[in-house]
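Q: I'm a student working through a structural biology exercise. My instructor gave each of us a protein and asked us to get a predicted structure, then write a short paragraph describing it. Mine is D-2-hydroxyacid dehydrogenase. I'm not confident about reading structure output yet, so if you can add a plain explanation after the tokens, that would really help. Here is the sequence I was given:
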Amino acid sequence: MSDTALPAALLTALSELLGPTGLLTDAGDTDSFCTDWRMLYHGRCAAVLRPATTQDCAKAVALCAEYGVPMVPQGGNTSMVGGATPDASGKAVVISTNRMTRIHTIDHADLTMTVEAGVTLKAAQDAAAAEGLMLPLSISSEGSAEIGGILATNAGGNNTVRYGNARELALGLEAVLPDGQVLNLMRRLRKDNTGYALRQLLIGSEGTLGLITTAILQLQPAPRSRETALCALADPQAVLTLFAAFRKQDPAAIQAFEYMSGTSMALVNSLIDGASLPLSEPAPAYALVELGSPRADDSLRTLMEEVLGQALEDGLVTDAVLAESESQRQALWMIREEHAEAQKRAGASVKNDVSVPLSAIPEFITKATAACEALIPGIRVAPFGHIGDGNIHFNLVQPEGMDPKDFLAQDHAMMDTVANIVRTLDGSFSAEHGVGQLKTYMMPSWRGGAELDAMRKIKAALDPQTVMNPGKIFPQA
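A: Happy to help. First, here is the predicted structure for D-2-hydroxyacid dehydrogenase. I'll explain a few features afterward.
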């Protein structure tokens, strides 16, 4: 048992409720739930609760609330900001949804699927695909990220430019509130104007207002025609100009439009097995363009060739390759999806998940790069991201040979340097990763006054004991 034990009566009640596989107390079993994916936070917990149903989850939450035990909801544990990691006190329990893995229904008329919170995004995608449909949400961690956590953080991803964030894809939710009540918002309705949209309050709340257990997600017809290209360009301004060229021709055809810097691409090619740049030579910037349509005879190839042909003629694009098969398409996407892993392997990194208006992207990247290089000579500035929706992962990798601890000791200085530039461009310091515990200190200056006060009042109304995911989003008083 962990060295911070729960009250005996609570432990007995939880054991009877959840059974031997639903309650973990040995440190060897709970340790992996107490460290985040980036290895930035190493907490402790009194136990890990693994309910298999919403009813068991509600009963477990009610028991913990009765004893005033803090609870940390956790899905696939892929948070980039420590949003699902307990603190070091060992007083909290982690409530994992990894046993809630049922896909209940797929409705072709409504184009929806009903899934439990512990279903991975990849499993949900595969289930939709087997029915000739598509769940359009796509993120790098989709093999391990779970639906509940994705909704709790309002994840965005590669297809936001066309289909929106998780918020736009969720029609209905079921959640357990901090006192154990079950909030049933499972309505498959496009129109439901009956008071506050409580599901939207839970989406993006990072588990601070309740624990999502089930969701109704919107689907799309599966693409029957798809074209993908990797392009080499001179700089971010050229990437943005290329995006505008595609959008001018047919904005509805754009399924994804991803930017990658030369530095970040070089890390992928050098550190990821199987990654290979399919262009004649490296470039300062790259764009991964994907067009899609549910029509089998759509002229996407013609559209892709016409826009890229003109861009090559104008010197906007210096080189490009089009996928000629599904395996080639997947190889191009693998290059994009491995950027975070490559940066992790390159050493310590500071991740700035920011957004700015599209027109400000080139200015932001130029100014932030110069500022960070002046702050830490030799730093490897490796931005990439969703240029089609203004979300840039402005990631900073330690200089070669630098002690990782010395680099991370300056994380706030680097984050503030980037955030100050974002602020001048009317952007946000968190686009899709959330606040977690990493960025709570930024909230007063960015969201202070009436906005943060309103958030605190909502939190106090739903969680007066402050037991649901404490230490996340809100700065310490």
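A: Here are two points you could use in your paragraph. The chain has five domains: 8-96, 103-221, 225-339, 347-430, 439-477. The first helix runs from residue 8 to 18. It's a good idea to check both against the output above yourself.
Q: Great, thank you!
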